[in-house]
Amino acid sequence: MDHQTTPAPARLPAGRKAELLAYVAEAEHATVAQLAARFEVSADTIRRDLHQLHRRGLVVRTHGGAVSVDVIGAAEKRLDVRMQIHTEEKERIGALAATLVSSNSVLMINAGTTTLSVVRHLGERRDLTIATNNLRIATEISPNIVRDLYLFGGSVRIGGQATIGPVSLQLPGGRDLQLRCDLALISVGAVSAKGGYSTSNLSEAVMMGEMMERATRVAILADSSKFTEPLFAQIAGLDRAQYLVTDAAPPSELAEALGHAGVQILVATASGQSENHKAAQ
User: Most buried residue, 49, 76, 139, 217, by most Cβ within 10 Å?
Assistant: First the structure.
C-alpha cells in the first residue's frame, strides 16, 4: 500500500497523536522520518509523541520508528509468524552467539526465534547438556551434538511453542536439583539504557530471570529493533549479562550504559563478520 499522501495541516498535539496512531495502525510500521514529513513537525516532536503512545500501550516503539500493536500482538502469539520477522538478522545473531558455546558445556536456552537460530549453528559442538522451555529445540537440534536435553515443565503456550513454569528439575520424592549452567542464551523483547532487559509477559520475565541467575555467563540476544523503550516486565538490569549479541551497534545512550555495566557488545554484520563494540567506561 502506498502511504505517500498530502502533508496534513497543522493540528493541536492531541489531534496529531490520534492521526499519528491511525497512520501507524494502517501502515503497520513507520519511521520517525516518514511521520515527521507526513505531519510536518520535527523528528524530536514525533519521537516524543511515539514515546507517549508507547507508554500508553498504543504503539510499540522500535529503533527509528514504531510498529502497530496489532502486528506485534499477532507475532508474539504465534511462533510461525515471529519466525518470518527479521529473519536474516536473527540468523546472523544466532551464528555469532553460537561461537560463545564450547563442547561439553551446559546451556540454558529460553523460548524464542532468535535462540532457535543459535541452535541451528551448533553443528560443530559435541556433548552439550541443554535445559530449555523451548518446545521446538528438540526438532531443530542435531542429536550428534547433545548429550542430554531437558525441558522445563509448566503450562504450555501453544502459539509460542513454549512452557512457562519454574526453572527446576525434581528428583523422585520432590527434591529440587540445584541447577547451574555455563551459559544462558536469553532472547529478550527490549533492551534499554534505563529499563535493562524486558519482555511483555510477566511469567516469561520471571523464568528468564531465573535462568540468568543460574548461569556463570549470560548472553542476551536481541536484534536492533529491540533497542526501544522498556516493555511491561523487567527481566534484569543491564549488568546481569556479560554479552549482548545483536545485528547493529546500539544507539549511543544505550551503548554507553552497556559499557558502564560491563557488557561486551557483539555485532553480527551483514557481511558475515563480527564486530566487538566497547563503549567508553
Answer: 49
pTM above 0.85, yes or no: no
Amino acid at 108: M
- Pick one of 3.90.226.10, 2.60.40.1180, 2.30.29.30, 1.10.10.10 as the CATH number of 13-77: 1.10.10.10
Strand, helix or coil at 179? Answer: coil
Alpha carbons 226 and 223: distance in angstroms, whole number: 6
Q: Which of 201, 191, 189, 119 has its CA nearest to residue 163? A: 201
CA distance 198 to 211: 14
When the pLDDT of each residue in the chain is averaged and rounded to a whole number, the result is 84
Q: Taking a C-beta distance cutoff of 8 angstroms, is the pair 195, 229 a contact?
A: yes
pLDDT band at 8 (very low <50, low <70, confident <90, very high): very low
- Crossing angle for the helix pair 13-27 and 32-39, to the nearest 10 degrees: 130
